[in-house]
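User: I'm curious whether this sequence folds into something compact or stays loose and floppy. Could you predict its structure so I can see for myself?
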Amino acid sequence: MTGFRAFVVDEIDGKYTPGFRTLTIDDLPKENVLVDIAYSTLNYKDGLAVTGKGKIARKFPMVCGIDLAGTVAESSDPAYKPGDKILVNGWGLSETSWGGYSSKQRISPKFITRLPAAFDFKQAMAIGTAGYTAMLCVLALEDAGVSPGKGDILVTGAVGGVGSVAVALLAKLGYRVVASTGRPKAADYLKLLGAADIIARADLDKVGRPLEKARWAGVVDSVGGKTLGMAIAQTHEEGAVAACGLAGGTDLPTTVMPFILRGVKLLGINSVTCPSARRDQAWARLAVDLDISKLDAMTSVEPLSKIQELGEQILKGETRGRVVIDVNA
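Assistant: Here's the prediction. I'll summarize afterward.
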């Protein structure tokens, strides 16, 4: 039986052990849809998983990769047939279900999103969980009444995957975007994506007063920690903050004052088990509101063979934009 390569984490003698492994079709989970995978992605959670610096997998062995895009090869579910083009984001891939760092995978049909006609596999994975999460943040801000005329929108962690897509989306929708980054050399990149202004990460990465001078009508935050606390304290009356990440920590130094004195709304974004209807809405909006040329500008493609090196880089904040993983390279 022909084997194929996958990146797998296992627990051997109590030790977390990541590495490449040759699998066969018979090794795959007993799910209803077999997919020939074209591409996956690199996200912060993937970096934690492949380096072993975060215990992402909840059972072993586990194929890593929280995203995948490819073609249905076999299906016992009537909703899908061979040749269908699909993608999967989240749903516990790399945690409780085998993920996308493999040439083939069996997937539960309830996890599947049909590939929008506007995108090919590479573009869909250039968006990936990070870009889809950015769109969920934008939808949440819109639902909270944050419109382009209300004032500046802050995007933290702007050079990362979520941040880069959020900047591009918000700029195209007519918002004035202020991008926060710890990398001054990335200023030209962020302005290319549509940022009107750039501020240093250090301006936000500190504990301030319960209420600071109001600066933001809305915020997309992928950092968490002190940065999120400061962003909340600086948000206008009736403004909103969409929080989707924790690269800067899980603690939240804030008080109730922004919420009861300014009516600030803190919007938690769950991209992992987001209902299918909301996912479809997000992908439909991405097909309309994301400038493909800007997506291409923020995207690089790397082989699966480099995944551990890339994982170290994303955890150190050394990657830029979106990294697509060619699982067959």
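Summary: The radius of gyration is 20 Å. Residues 129-268 form a domain with the Rossmann fold fold (CATH 3.40.50.720).
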